[in-house]
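Aim 2 progress update. The chain analyzed this quarter is reproduced below.
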Amino acid sequence: MSEETNNPSGGGESFAQLFEQSAPTVKEGKVIQGKVLSIDDDHVQVDVGFKSEGLIDSWEFMDDDGTILVKPGDSVDVLIEEAEDHTGRIVLSKEKADRLKIWDQISDAYEGDQAVEGVISSRVKGGLSVDIGVKAFLPGSQVDLRPVRNLDGMVGERHQFKIIKFNKRRGNIVLSRRALLETERKKMRAETLETLEEGQIVDGVIKNITDYGAFIDLGGIDGLLHVTDMSWGRVNHPSELFQVGDEIKVQVLKFDADSERVSLGLKQIQPDPWVDAAMRYPIGMRVRGKCVSLTDYGAFVELEPGIEGLVHVSEMSWTKRIKHPSKVVSVGDEVEAVVLDVDEGNRKISLGMKQIEPNPWQMIEEKYPVGTQVAGQVRNITNFGVFVGLEEGIDGLVHVSDISWTEQIKHPSEKFQKGDEIQAVVLKIDKENEKFSLGIKQLEPNPWDDIQKKYPAGTEIEGTVTGVTDFGAFVRLDEGVEGLVYSSEIAAERVENPSDHVREGETVKAIVVRVDPAEQKISLSMKAVHDKAEREALKQLAAQQSTSQKATLGDLLAEKLAAKTDESEE
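Predicted structure tokens:
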């Protein structure tokens, strides 16, 4: 039978000729949409409505990890390279189609004066090479608002750029980052001038450093941070504290909108060291500091930034008559002294060096060896511990972590008051730094050895929530024993705010994840309880399915009949 006789139209054209006439015309160099038919290790078969399908190398559809990003049935844009090769198959390319699309997008961005994003790929002559989908050139003068000395250091960085020259035919693209930064700076300047006011705390970046201060970029406008407003302590040169490019928070001290002059302060947003100085430096306290200045009548010793004490020449020696402080100390020397008087109102501290002799710390180790049980009176309480007076001039510190084995003590004042008589154990003596460490919890055995045995990892517990923080919830296991459920272990889903899931006083179930006797911490997981329950349910379901598969049809009918009988009796 001939092709003509098989033609239902009755004409003289063959079926193959009709198929070719009905197939869409293709134009080489044109981007069209096709459908993925199949995928194997080497090729992706794509149908573009032509008489034959095209085969495209699989790598053109892979990401950086080698994963193919399409599946059969997906629509993809491809470029027609050849309408028909030597095998009669159409030749397609996804990579070249993507490249053409990128050029069109870049052209649209250039015409619309829109920014493009790219990654600086390498240093080239006169500037940098930038990958924005295709290679583009960033001149060195267009990198930043100010000259950049180390262009190599910017390789690998991702930024936004403005296209300042574009020639698709020559494949020439020139970018500018500076143009965007200038536009942004003008916008920031206007916004800053509208919102800036005296007393405001603002963020800035150090732009320049001089002998008398530092200029801070506040966002389009510069302010001066004078050297005298940098620190409560002495600053010989701003470079001691800062470098160009440092980010900093400062307070606006003065602002003249007309002249756009801004005076800034850093020390004003830091705690005044003289507040509660009398508590930090009680009379009789031994201190160390650096001699920062000498006068005829004494030496000024810096105890901390902003706090200087005066050792009067008459307080330097018990026996020697000192004519000038330079005979005893020099600027830069470390000085050991005793606090004699504190006048917070006039910002003065009187120190004495002669009171150091004789030094009782030279004999303290023999008198109080490590492990000795001692008794003393609470002389001072801080947020980090309790100072216990053992004898005149000798205080031992019980750090907050050494008060109790199990209790979570936020502040020592919860347990002690000044004047309390307490028992403690000597833990460590540091004669050089005049530190005496004591412990109260060491009077009793460490219960964490038993706690670890009682609550091994994997134990399921039930406890009461004693507190909820932004990082998790504390759960009481026993009296004085608490565990922590981190936010990530509260529920299977992501927990942004733990208080949305648990409340103080609520009883919860959790599984012990880890017990750390050294850190005295118990890590718990509520999520693990849920996971455990799901696993048990899955096991039961699997068992039921296994049993049901073994049951006969008669057993299943009998079971249903019994169930209906029970329902009717109820």
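The chain is about 20% helix and 35% strand. The longest strand covers residues 115-124. These observations will guide the mutagenesis experiments scheduled for the next reporting period.
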